[in-house]
């Protein structure tokens, strides 16, 4: 029976035991990661509620008890800058529970709370304005903005706001992107009126349009996408908002394709559609293939779909006009390319087979014990293999076979290295 040595044990296999234990611990964390993360969040939320109930000020902000807050302020028995279990201020608590009256009183008493951010690793950078816009509390948003809340500076970079399989939401980092993902046009319009920058990008380089592409509520995301494009058209000096790439070089349109977001992709394709004429049930339509066709684009949508590991992206190939484009490319380039390769491969196999059939052999004249023994052939020596015109013809075939093998190897290596080089022409 084998034995695992613990770190404190002594013996020649101690290092191997520690390694196995480490691998086993990593495997357990991998298998139980999602459950552990959910349990950790539950524990933190319970700790947060416990801390709120223990603090009279935080509890009053939660319950919108304005009179209790006024009494504590008058008696100087509270610290307006105290923080809860996850680094939240009393204003965060009031905003979280949509308590406008309590929030207004706190803002008037301590205006500096407006731009105070949460400090824990989970919610780092989140301000009260982040919470207010997500809750679609227009009145609270307006009150915070009137008190000088910073719109473009704060960035929510905590773990729960990052794009990860552990997290249920990804709203970006900026306040305006939070409002866009929440889906409130009134809040978005209010923020822009107070100077919110519609071209802000998070640490991944994603603009608000990128972030909308990644939202699960696709119908609401499409409507908000149109709203931001309308604001973008009003300021053409800095270029189109939907042409800004993220850190991976993907525009919102390409990201929709790579993510397999068919609803958003079709929505964006409708914006690229140009109707030439209509005659009863017949309509002539042109589509802008910019970013889709691989011609002249180092990172086209077709190439991204072919190379991505996301299977959902393959569904884009069934949508108009991508399916028409793929069919056209196959008929014009792919099929002839395949037929030519197939023809050359058949000819190569014929040449290879003929060289094998007519390889240089001679009768074995030794070790023959009886005249009825079967005839056995052996390989001719190199000096005897290429003497006749037939041998020269076979030599040409052998050279073709070797060169053909090298060409096939090069083609296979290129297809493995650049799998989309044949598909995207």
UniProtKB/TrEMBL annotation:
<keyword id="KW-0107">Calcium channel</keyword>
<keyword id="KW-0812">Transmembrane</keyword>
<dbReference type="InterPro" id="IPR002110">
    <property type="entry name" value="Ankyrin_rpt"/>
</dbReference>
<protein>
    <recommendedName>
        <fullName>Transient receptor potential cation channel subfamily V member 6</fullName>
    </recommendedName>
</protein>
<dbReference type="InterPro" id="IPR036770">
    <property type="entry name" value="Ankyrin_rpt-contain_sf"/>
</dbReference>
<dbReference type="GO" id="GO:0098703">
    <property type="term" value="P:calcium ion import across plasma membrane"/>
</dbReference>
<dbReference type="GO" id="GO:0005516">
    <property type="term" value="F:calmodulin binding"/>
</dbReference>
<dbReference type="InterPro" id="IPR008344">
    <property type="entry name" value="TRPV5/TRPV6"/>
</dbReference>
<dbReference type="GO" id="GO:0005886">
    <property type="term" value="C:plasma membrane"/>
</dbReference>
<dbReference type="GO" id="GO:0005262">
    <property type="term" value="F:calcium channel activity"/>
</dbReference>
<keyword id="KW-1133">Transmembrane helix</keyword>
<keyword id="KW-0406">Ion transport</keyword>
<keyword id="KW-0106">Calcium</keyword>
<keyword id="KW-0112">Calmodulin-binding</keyword>
<keyword id="KW-0472">Membrane</keyword>
<keyword id="KW-0813">Transport</keyword>
<dbReference type="InterPro" id="IPR024862">
    <property type="entry name" value="TRPV"/>
</dbReference>
<feature type="transmembrane region" description="Helical">
    <location>
        <begin position="337"/>
        <end position="361"/>
    </location>
</feature>
<keyword id="KW-0407">Ion channel</keyword>
<keyword id="KW-0109">Calcium transport</keyword>
<keyword id="KW-1003">Cell membrane</keyword>
<dbReference type="Pfam" id="PF12796">
    <property type="entry name" value="Ank_2"/>
</dbReference>
<keyword id="KW-0677">Repeat</keyword>
<dbReference type="GO" id="GO:0046872">
    <property type="term" value="F:metal ion binding"/>
</dbReference>
<keyword id="KW-0479">Metal-binding</keyword>
<dbReference type="Pfam" id="PF00023">
    <property type="entry name" value="Ank"/>
</dbReference>
<keyword id="KW-0597">Phosphoprotein</keyword>
<keyword id="KW-0040">ANK repeat</keyword>
<feature type="repeat" description="ANK">
    <location>
        <begin position="124"/>
        <end position="156"/>
    </location>
</feature>
<feature type="repeat" description="ANK">
    <location>
        <begin position="171"/>
        <end position="203"/>
    </location>
</feature>
